[in-house]
């Protein structure tokens, strides 16, 4: 996925820092339940 606007990129980065939101967002995209989100 390519995000053209850097404002949205920063927003998505902030959202992915929250485990609950990241699980929901990624799970919705791939239509599967997410158990653990690893942060690198």
Please, could you describe this protein's structure?
By secondary structure, this protein is mainly α. It has one domain. It contains two helices and no strands. The chain is globular, with a radius of gyration of 11 Å. The mean pLDDT is 80.
Q: What topology does this entry show?
A:
Blueprint: H1 6-16, H2 19-30
How much helicity do the residues have?
55-70%
- Cα distance spanning the termini: 20 Å
Number of strands: 0
Overall structural class, as computed from helix and strand content, comes to mainly alpha
Number of structurally distinct domains: 1
Poorly predicted regions: none
Binned strand content: under 5%
Shape: globular
Instruction: Give the radius of gyration.
Output: 11 Å
Element string (H = helix, E = strand):
HH
What can be said about the biggest beta sheet? none
Q: Give average pLDDT, whole number.
A: 80
Enumerate how many helices there are, as a single number.
Answer: 2
Task: Describe the structure in brief.
By secondary structure, the chain is mostly helical. Helices cover 57% and strands 0% of the residues.
Features of the shown structure:
40 residues, mainly alpha, 57% helix
